Amino acid sequence: MDLTPFLDRESNNPLNQQLIEFFKSNMHNGRIKKGMKLPSKRHLAKKLLISQTTVERAYDQLLAEGYILSKARSGIFADYEELFLIHSDPKTAELPVQDINVLTNEIIDFHYGHVDSSFFPFSAWRKSVVASLDKYSEKLCRPGDVLGEIELRSLITEYLYQSRGVNCDPNQIIIGASTSYLLQMLCHILNTGFKVGFEEPGYPRSREIFELNRKEIIPLPLDSEGLRMDAVKKNIPDLIYVTPSHQYPLGRIMTINRRLELLKWAADNQSYIIEDDYDGEFRYSGQPTPSLQALDRENRVIYLGTFSKSFLPTLRISYMILPQSLLKKATEVTTLFKQTVSSNNQYALAEFILNGEWQKHLNRMRKLYRKKRKIILEAVKNELGDKVNIHGENSGPRILIDVYLELSEQELIQKAENHGVRVYPVSDSYKKGSALKTMSLGFSGVSEEEIKRGIYLLSKSWGIK
């Protein structure tokens, strides 16, 4: 950066302190952003006509307080993550060092959809991308299949049969850039008006897709076994959206008896069930429960899956498996919509699966998530104690905590953010609202040390310790 601090040589404030205040002010105001390269000590001293020692003293202090970092043979970089717009001249200079560090540390983000980059097999993925370019170069020069490349759809068919018991033909699979996109397409395939039975609470984005398409949402309550059938039978929806393998957001697993009861009801009433199996790969105890689609004998289940939770969220590859009765209309709609996932990414993923790298990656992630799950459960019990209730921990890379403190949901979130921790409320999953203050703590994208540190900071921010 070509910075020009204006120094007051008549001031009683030392020049090195003026430099410190200049950099802090510009970082707090967002003019100097995290990762920006700063001038070298020699360059800045020469430009400002001051001694290099003065610049060194300023940089040393900024380094000690966590505002900058020095990389060998690379230079000096801003390391301040702008969390608040703090106009702190001179208040910032008066803050204790530990409080400044809270403001300058990177946020520990317990987001559910993140991936820990240190464990992602970038080398194997790079090889698959290169191999797919060589193998499918001719096909890449032509428009792809509107349903998705057959090479990938065939491999998904095999994988789902082996892992989830799903029975389908590759031609029943539609590839799409996200579950939301596939639901939007489904609304056009089922183009008549219908009532959607939706889990209460349930995945808000999917609910909003249906509402955007002017479908009537019927909230259906849950019990310990899953979707309550008395509510289903009372409302008789045309379509039911469920997340039976890891209910979103409560984390409950639908029992086999409830699954069979739901399937029988759907067959008797000629209704469809959307089974969103968004992280069915991750379960920590007991035998995997068969998917609804695997148990379905009457072709009433529409199955949704994604690679975003188990692989890369930015890859944007999801898939939908339709019953045979919907394929004709689906082909008409997909021809109109075209394919939203690049053929290049589809072929690369096919290579990744074909070479066994996908299974290796899943095995590593299952082992890693079991370890992280154990760490976060221990940390929550030790740091938060009886002030919270833990649930939803039996599958998926996330836990939920009900918080028993005299703080509002927004206060809990803001106080955590002020201490460098980001947590997420479950309240937006309820259509009718909830009296509970429940927070989601996703651990897939944070390191083991960040988990421990983050839960400690939560206890501190919420006044538990």
From TrEMBL:
Gene3D superfamilies associated with the record: Type I PLP-dependent aspartate aminotransferase-like (Major domain), Winged helix-like DNA-binding domain superfamily/Winged helix DNA-binding domain
Record's protein name: GntR family transcriptional regulator
Keywords linked to the UniProt accession: Aminotransferase, DNA-binding, Pyridoxal phosphate, Transcription, Transcription regulation, Transferase
Record keyword Cell division present: no
Domain HTH gntR-type: 13-81
GO molecular function: DNA binding; DNA-binding transcription factor activity; pyridoxal phosphate binding; transaminase activity
InterPro entries in alphabetical order: Aminotransferase_I/II_large, HTH_trans_reg/aminotransferase, PyrdxlP-dep_Trfase, PyrdxlP-dep_Trfase_major, Tscrpt_reg_HTH_GntR, WH-like_DNA-bd_sf, WH_DNA-bd_sf
Similarity-based family: In the C-terminal section; belongs to the class-I pyridoxal-phosphate-dependent aminotransferase family.
Cofactor(s) demanded: pyridoxal 5'-phosphate
Pfam families assigned: Aminotran_1_2 (PF00155), GntR (PF00392)
Database matches in SUPFAM superfamilies: PLP-dependent transferases, Winged helix' DNA-binding domain
